Amino acid sequence: MIRLVDSSLRDGMHSVRHSFSPEQVALVAAGLDRAGVDAIEVSHGDGVGGSSIQYGKAAFSDEALIEAAASVVQRAQIAALLLPGIGTLTRLQAAQRLGASVARVATHCTEADIAEQHIGWAAEHGMRAIGFLMMSHMIEPAELAVQARLMESYGASVVYIVDSAGAMVPRTAAERVRALRDGLDGATEVGFHAHNNLGCGVGNALAAADAGATWLDGSLRGLGAGAGNAQLEVLAAALERSGHATGVELFPLMDVAEDVVASLMERPQIIDRTALSLGYAGVYSSFLLHAERAAAKFGVEPRAVLMELGRRRIVGGQEDMIIDAAAQLAADSHPAPTGSSGSA
Amino acid sequence: MIRLVDSSLRDGMHSVRHSFSPEQVALVAAGLDRAGVDAIEVSHGDGVGGSSIQYGKAAFSDEALIEAAASVVQRAQIAALLLPGIGTLTRLQAAQRLGASVARVATHCTEADIAEQHIGWAAEHGMRAIGFLMMSHMIEPAELAVQARLMESYGASVVYIVDSAGAMVPRTAAERVRALRDGLDGATEVGFHAHNNLGCGVGNALAAADAGATWLDGSLRGLGAGAGNAQLEVLAAALERSGHATGVELFPLMDVAEDVVASLMERPQIIDRTALSLGYAGVYSSFLLHAERAAAKFGVEPRAVLMELGRRRIVGGQEDMIIDAAAQLAADSHPAPTGSSGSA
């Protein structure tokens, strides 16, 4: 049995500039609940407390949105995402008071240790604690399993492989799920959160399920950062056709996607050149603007800069290396004449 | 090595009402050729000779479009699709004279025998003859292999599994490729043509490649009937990330998708409720209008009618059974009182 988690009201926030209102959240959440989705994630795109100049100002508080969702659901659990360093524990505590019963605590895939306090608190205070390993394509499956075991040791009952850059294909997704499935306790479940930059949102989620993942994320109409997520109503149908039960009723799920979410979208969730380039390079979407500026300065292709950042495995906080990467590419394509130190 | 075939200028014709002009075809074909795509399929959406009241009038003749494409390519082969019963052999002969060197002859998956004359002619007259088994999800892998062997016996050097309804998932796609791979001569290649109704366009093509398919179709921006095809520029990137070489240069391919094809599209190629319903039911998109009318007449859900058509495995030519399916659904949901023959 696969548990489906909807992220339209959290990851989807990225594609509507964090503008969903409590009324809109209630409409979507009620539809998801009627269809039998297990959990509904609600907050700013970067988790509770994410509203800021740096990450984008939200139109409404996380608390108002979580309360709106919690007030309309009958069966579904409400989930709150927390990125330690962006949000604080007090925001998670507020989320719980307003009706969130699932805590998803997210870190970069090599930094599980910064989630110890937050996962621990959630597990000790009656929330389902879920660990979220972002940019999971960047490290090998065995290393990822080590990080997952850390989260498990803090109290996580589910650990997610998060393909933040949409850089995985079914083979790499399945390898990571198997590594976690082998490395974790039998009672700890494995989840998968896809992005669609390489067109594999649904395909990766199916491969994850085949490999033993039992929690899968998606969003209605694929609403999400970049190329978007696995399209939830499509994933539900594809899982059924692949022999995986979800407990979700497909027609009501299609209806909330088409009758509610489609009209709230600012643009269709397609795979354009930018989204594809980011997924192919396997880098953070927040690097894009930096890469474009550095490329212009040094007269090189923006995509070539993204590829170089992917090769160097640059992560958030290392934005200063983007200039260096562009300068290097320019030097490689226009080498100074051999034996000369003069102008070329 | 995977050979990529672009179908933007044939299957993509469905989503632009068969309106591409020779100038537009030349622009797209030149871009595909620069990127190193192996073959470019050009014609009305239903193949050469498809322009008609029944299948949709094309703005320009197949011959003018094929000639336009052939005049600009340096490396790529030009492919013409022929559906026996819609187009005739004379159209294929004309296509060859104008520069098409690949003949793709398509039949319903149980009717390979009607392709004998056309595949045979193409193979004998210096064209690469490819067999195209449409709606391949409708029969079991072993049965499909029998049909593929027929096409091979007529002279096809490649036989395609065509997921016309977008009803397959990676598992069912791979099963069919393996059945053909096992059933055909080693020298005969297997191809896969995806549709994206279940979000598996790229995922199915990757699964097909892993299972031994060496010819894969796609289209730029996913342009195609219904939910569209595997998005070619995305598929090329995903194949590379999956360890399959294609010989295609990715950046030029992305550029023709974004700089040329995107501006020619009338709507983005998304998976809406209708496309998903058709893929989930596994029925021809041409049944949609009939199903909607029958559903209205009998007061049942159009989607329920589509599902019933899928269960009954109705194929083209059996449209009269759509009314019967809707009537049956209505009777099942409002049964007459037991023991009474009076009005209810």
UniProtKB/TrEMBL annotation, chains A, B:
Catalytic activity line of the entry: (S)-4-hydroxy-2-oxopentanoate = acetaldehyde + pyruvate; (S)-4-hydroxy-2-oxohexanoate = propanal + pyruvate
Molecular function terms from GO: 2-isopropylmalate synthase activity; 4-hydroxy-2-oxovalerate aldolase activity; manganese ion binding
Active site (catalytic residues): H14 (proton acceptor)
Coiled-coil features, chain-numbered ranges: none
UniProt binding sites for substrate: R10, D11, S164, H193, Y284
HAMAP family reported in the protein's UniProt record: HOA
Family according to the record: Belongs to the 4-hydroxy-2-oxovalerate aldolase family.
Official protein name in the record: 4-hydroxy-2-oxovalerate aldolase
